[in-house]
Task: inverse folding
């Protein structure tokens, strides 16, 4: 079988994978590297549940061929917690009951992280805009927006 | 068995394409093609990826902005401030989709996607296509006409030339949701008014109002020599509706879309006249 080898940085660690040419980053993460926080949703770019960070920007891993991330920095939800402690966004999602079934949560948290890294004190409208590509069918979005708001406050106090 | 080529410049890309033009699928950001592959609709044999081909340059001159076909929608929406085009980019999909999606790829999107062409029509944009031993420029209108008949294989879209916009502009994308949804209809308007407020040039471009994005030229002509008052705006809305031949899909029926062409052209014209 024809494969290509791609090297990239995954959650701070150099990583190399040999895959078939159009393997998506989502498939590489879930099926080759067994990192299952990144969820497989619509596969079409409509739901946002496969969102990862590509050089700090939110990106849809189901639509990203691994061949396109040679030398790039990828962050998944697994890369967020340091030494067993929760990231402030994870804490706030917990306390705000912003996860119900949990399927959209990894994508929501990473899309929110990209926003807060760029804009530490966003307005509610800016939070909603940043999460506009991530569908949640459980919570009605209000607890999620509230959680991102609170995480921004906590992070600003640190 | 799929093979992929990852050329590092456009000359390499067009030469690779020339060798296998008929069975090569061109991949830009991947947001259209990968969805079709994930769905099992497409099993490409040869893929030519433009990801590393250096098509992400932006050149600003006094007369125009020249965009490489690989410039992402995220960059258009956030870092560039091009009337109509940046607005259309900002309303395409969600933020994570825009990180990968490119302006060049959007010009090959299938309906109901592909709103950037609507903005480019109102801006009188030109495109550059490259082949192994040739380059050619063509207007966005000519490009869309060729695309509708199935563009010849063997060329790669390399650059989009956007003249510095003259006049005032307004863009509307009517969606079933506030964001992350294809257009029911989209409208891009550019008007040039003289010192007395009389319209001397008009562009009204429509998306999802026909099988292809198009300029409602009768509606444009109806505004010339008017002050774009309520009567002229109503007339332009009617002319745009009359020129429409909209599709029916999961988002809207043809009947509804035609009605919305009238409503959204009138509203967009009213807005462009308010925003002095």
Result:
């Amino acid at each position: 079988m024809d494969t290509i080898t791609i090297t990239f940085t995954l959650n701070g660690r150099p990583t190399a994978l040999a895959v078939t040419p159009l393997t998506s980053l989502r498939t590489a993460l879930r099926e080759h590297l067994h990192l299952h926080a990144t969820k497989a949703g619509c596969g079409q770019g409509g739901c946002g549940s496969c969102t990862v960070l590509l050089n700090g920007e939110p990106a849809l891993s189901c639509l990203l061929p691994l061949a396109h991330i040679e030398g790039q920095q990828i962050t998944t939800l697994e890369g967020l917690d340091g030494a067993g402690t929760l990231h402030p966004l994870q804490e706030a999602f917990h306390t705000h009951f912003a996860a119900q079934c949990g399927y959209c949560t990894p994508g929501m948290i990473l899309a929110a992280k990209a926003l807060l890294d760029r804009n530490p004190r966003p307005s509610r409208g800016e939070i909603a805009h940043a999460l506009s590509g991530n569908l949640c069918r459980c919570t009605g979005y209000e607890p999620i927006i509230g959680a991102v708001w609170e995480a921004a406050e906590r992070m600003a106090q640190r | 068995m799929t093979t992929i080529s990852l050329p590092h410049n456009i000359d390499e890309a067009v030469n690779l394409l020339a060798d296998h033009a008929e069975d090569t699928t061109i991949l830009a950001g991947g947001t259209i093609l990968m969805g079709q592959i994930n769905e099992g609709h497409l099993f490409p044999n040869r893929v030519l990826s433009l990801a590393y081909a250096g098509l992400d340059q932006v050149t600003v001159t006094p007369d125009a902005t020249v965009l490489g076909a690989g410039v992402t929608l995220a960059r258009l929406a956030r870092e560039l401030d091009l009337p109509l085009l940046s607005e259309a980019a900002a309303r395409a999909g969600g933020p994570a989709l825009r990180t990968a999606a490119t302006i060049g790829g959007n010009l090959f999107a299938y309906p109901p996607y592909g709103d950037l062409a609507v903005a480019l029509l109102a801006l009188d944009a030109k495109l550059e296509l490259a082949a192994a031993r040739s380059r050619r420029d063509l207007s966005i209108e000519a490009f869309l006409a060729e695309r509708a008949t199935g563009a010849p294989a063997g060329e790669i879209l390399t650059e989009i030339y956007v003249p510095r916009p003259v006049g005032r502009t307004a863009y509307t994308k009517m969606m079933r949701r506030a964001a992350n949804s294809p257009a029911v209809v989209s409208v891009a308007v550019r008007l040039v008014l003289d010192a007395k407020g009389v319209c001397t040039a008009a562009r009204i471009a429509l998306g999802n109002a026909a099988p292809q994005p198009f300029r409602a030229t009768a509606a444009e002509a109806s505004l010339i020599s008017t002050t774009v008052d309520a009567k002229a705006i109503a007339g332009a809305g009617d002319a745009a509706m009359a020129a429409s031949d909209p599709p029916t899909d999961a988002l809207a029926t043809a009947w509804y879309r035609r009605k919305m062409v009238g409503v959204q052209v009138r509203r967009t014209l009213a807005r462009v006249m308010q925003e002095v």
Observations:
- The mean pLDDT of chain B is 96.
